[in-house]
Design goal:
12 strands, elongated
């Protein structure tokens, strides 16, 4: 990259500040009036700096006598990322970093230091980079994940986070193929390259974007053709589409009107049908239903490989509040379920308190509730996906040779 990308770099610095200082999610930010290509570049730079932040800081530390203010540190992080990972020309990167530093009074005095440090990174940093481990999770996540899965798995999860996430597609029907994809054992398609909207079958609605792990909860329900199904917390709608494609009579409920518009758009594109309800599940009355799929609000810690801003924005306090909400959602969902009906509870979380422990607590609260043990092998999974209480525990380090998967927990429950 040359100085031609200066505005994209500036926008990336603004976004880094918003995440690291203001604790704002990247999904809530924009990149101003940048042209689409520059906005995409800014988004990529922001995401990748956050993904590698701890590793970048470790390399930079060797060239700093003291820690600079965050604005200067972010310029150094951005420059070091481009030098060590992006593989761009060193001269243009260093010049751009210096130009960015000179733009603001808070950083202008440090422009000489930025120049000197990044030149040394360009000359010497590659060896240190190779020896430095991936960015570690924050303590509030590292401790429970390490306790649950062991230190070696923790390191494997952190390595998976650094590698990022490929794009997976869920085919509308078995047998749908898309050029440039591989068929995964669970039935999802993994994309190697290409723009989503330009792929074969997009306009015809033959598939939709959905991580392979997120596509599994609906698979637990078996044959649901003709059954009434409630998809709770339905947006952005991947599971709604799966349920509708399986022939169920689907009611999709979500509290967000904006997010439900995406569900409606995808239903229209795929030619599938569902009744859409915008409401608070805790206040809504409906049912009873044969089947319920509850993808409960959670910390989303299983999606860090695609959302590296999450560890910097979320906290242990937020998780505690979410576990209480999940408990309420389970109890409420069961009031919509017919006797003998089945419910899948799932979260895209790596934390046991949002998965295994939540299900164990629900079984104690409801005497008429039982767990239906899941065998992951017929689903295309491996035996180590099974969790002791009968659910499935998926981790980002699974399928490492294929590009990994999101962290997910799911359990199949039944009312006696």
């Amino acid at each position: 990259m040359s100085t031609e990308g200066l505005e994209a770099r500036r926008a990336a610095l603004d976004a880094l500040y918003a995440v690291l200082w203001e604790k704002r999610l990247l999904s809530h930010l924009g990149y101003g009036d940048l042209p689409p290509s520059e906005a995409a570049r800014a988004g990529r730079l922001t995401t990748e700096v956050l993904r590698h932040l701890g590793r970048l800081d470790a390399v930079l530390r060797a060239y700093l006598t003291r820690r600079p203010n965050m604005a200067v540190q972010n310029i150094l992080r951005l420059g070091a990322y481009e030098l060590l990972v992006d593989g761009s020309g060193a001269h243009g990167i260093v010049n751009s970093a210096v130009a960015l530093a000179k733009r603001h009074p808070r950083t202008a005095r440090a422009s000489g230091m930025v120049n000197a440090v990044l030149r040394r990174v360009a000359e010497e940093g590659a060896e240190a980079w190779e020896k430095t481990p991936p960015h570690p999770l924050p303590v509030w996540l590292r401790k429970p994940i390490g306790k649950a899965f062991g230190h070696d798995v923790l390191l494997a999860i952190e390595a998976a986070h650094e590698k990022g996430a490929p794009t997976d597609l869920t085919p509308k029907h078995t047998g749908v193929t898309v050029p440039g994809t591989d068929l995964l054992p669970t039935g999802s398609l993994r994309l190697h390259q290409g723009q989503i909207t330009a792929l074969e079958g997009y306009n015809e609605g033959r598939w939709w974007v959905q991580d392979a792990a997120a596509a599994l909860p609906a698979s637990l329900l078996g044959d649901i053709a003709g059954k009434t199904v409630l998809d709770l917390c339905a947006a952005p709608g991947g599971k709604t589409l799966q349920l509708a494609a399986a022939g169920a009579h689907v009611t999709a409920l979500d509290i967000s009107e904006d997010r439900m518009r995406r569900v409606e758009e995808n239903l229209n594109r795929t030619g599938l049908q569902a009744d859409l309800v915008v409401a608070d599940a805790l206040a809504w009355d409906g049912g009873p239903f044969d089947v319920i799929l509850l993808d409960a609000p959670c910390s989303a810690t299983g999606t860090i490989r695609r959302h590296p801003d999450l560890p910097f924005v979320k906290s242990a306090d937020e998780v505690e509040a979410l576990t209480k909400l999940q408990m309420q959602m389970i109890d409420r969902a069961l009031t919509f379920l017919k006797p003998g009906g089945r419910m899948v509870y799932c979260t895209c979380s790596l934390l046991l308190n949002e998965g295994e422990n939540q299900v164990k607590a629900a079984l104690k609260r409801h005497e008429d509730l039982e767990i239906v043990p899941i065998d992951p092998v017929p689903l295309g999974g491996a035996t180590d996906w099974a969790s002791p209480e009968g659910g499935l525990r998926l981790r980002p380090d699974f399928w490492a040779d294929r590009g990994g998967m999101d962290g997910f927990y799911m359990a199949l429950l039944q009312r006696r």
